[in-house]
Every structure is written in C-alpha cells, then in structure tokens.
Amino acid sequence: MPAMKKRVFVAADVDQSFFDRIMIDDRFETRHLRCHDEQSLIGNLADAEVLVTRYANQVTSKVLDSSTSLRLLAQGTSGLDNIDLARAAERNIIVLGLPGENANAVAELVIGFMIMLTRTVPAYNEMVRAGRWSRDDCATRRELRSFRLGIIGLGRVGSRVAAIAKNFGMSIVACDPYITPEQATERDALLLSSLEELLGQSDIVTCHVPLTKETDDMLAGRQLDLLPAGAIVINTCRGPVVNATEALRRLESGHLQGLAMDVYDQEPPKERTWPADPRLITTPHIAGCSRESKASIGKMLYEKICDHYGFVPKN
Fold first, then answer.
1. Global pTM?
2. pLDDT grade for 270, boundaries at 50, 70 and 90
3. At 219, phi and psi to the nearest 5?
4. Which one of 151, 181, 230, 253 is most buried, by most CB atoms within 10 A?
C-alpha cells in the first residue's frame, strides 16, 4: 500500500524554485493560496500537515489551535517572531526557519546604505533633478575607511556585513553576548563588552538581531544619545529594535547625520509621516530580497521539509 502523501499548504509567496521541486514530488500534496490575515489562514489550513509561511503571515495561537493535523511549520525567513513559538511547542508542532540564507543580500544593501549616506547621494540626486549643479562641498565627504562601524549582532548577517566592510578598510567593533572575543576576531570584528560601549565608539551602527524582549526598543532615546554627533543608524532586522520616533527626532536635531530603515513597527507603516529629508532612506522590507536569495530560500525550504521526514530530495 503506497504511503500517504504529506499535505502541504503554502500560505505565502515562495520562490518558484520551491514549487518546481515540491509540486513534482509525489510524496507531497501541495496547495498554494496567499493568506493576508489570520482568518484567511485559519479558513484555508484545513487538514494540512505542513504549513509554509513567510514573515507577513501572523501565525497566532488561534491559527495553531484551528488545526488538529498540523505537525510542521516551515518558514522561508530567518526571523520567527511572527509565530507563537510557545504555543507551537505546547502543540508539539515543529518550527523550521532559514537563518542566514539571505545574509549576503542584506549585507550588500547595508553597505549600499552606508555609501549613500556618507557620500550624501540622495541629496545630490535631489539637487541635479531640481536643475541645480554644485560640486563645491563634495571633497568634504569621506570614504568608508574613515568610519568605525558598530555591528549589533554578529551572527550570519552581521558577520557578512563585517567581511564586506573590512574590504572597504573600515574599523569594525561588535556587540553580541552569544559569541566569544576569539569568534569575533575570526569574523573581522573587535568584540566590546556592552552595547553602551559600542554606541559610544561607532560612527555607523547597523542592527542584526532577532526581535525578542531583550532587543525590543534596544535603540531608544537614551541609547541614541550615546552615539557621537553625526552618527548614522541603519536598521534592516526588525522594526521595533530601533525606536523610529526617537531616531527621527535626533535626525531632525542634527545629532544623527543619516538614518536608513528597511523595517518598521507596523508593515506597511500606515500611520507615520516621513520628513522630506535626504538624510533619511526608507525601503519596504526588501534588504533580504534578491533573485539569488529567493532562489536559495526556495530550494532550502524544500530540502528542509524533506529532511524533517527523512526523505531524500528529488532534485
């Protein structure tokens, strides 16, 4: 008697590389429908044994409790803070994530933000588009090798940022309670003992931590004031890690020279007015999104699901 197929429900947009593999794998029966809210997810989960999600899906306890057949939750991102992990554990639902699969994509955009803000590219772009032409102050802009970079979180993404920044000749310090000084050295950074010490010594700060009780509001008013005047803050991990209101106030006051945000407390950020300031860069949570990273995530997602069941991937 043939083995029963594993029923898979894909509730988010996943790269075609995932569907190219799982749809021809006769060990799985796969349905796909993009679910925008909790009720839609509950209504379509039905008898699925495997749920595939992305960060936009809010997998609450209500969602988890709506299915008696769910055994595996596979998410195509590294962060899992959209999932009620405690309830999943209580229900014996295994949760799989993909830490680091988009690390290079994130790191490249972080470096791009640094160059744009240190060389004031957005301001020059606005000037030329407005029909003005002035090069009088361009020699006052500095190259990245003149800046000290502070990396909060020296995991897969933070380490990749450090590796690229090193090639620009940057001085790199890091803060991460989960690594040793020796590991930091191997990752091209000097490990400092505290967040406060890092902030006091960094010209540019970039955040690469998961959203937890410890990291929520990690960079708020008091912490931002520890930065040297003219510092730059970049957030591509999770919105609540940096207090956007406080950061914008310090940009307006001139304490910050630049601010780049790819993530927000609420996505999309519907109830916020953004100042028309070329020192501010805002992007719609796209740091980890590239053709290469999406293809890698799709392939790895399929392989992790296979591995969970002890299956050899078909291709």
1. 0.91
2. confident
3. -110, 90
4. 151
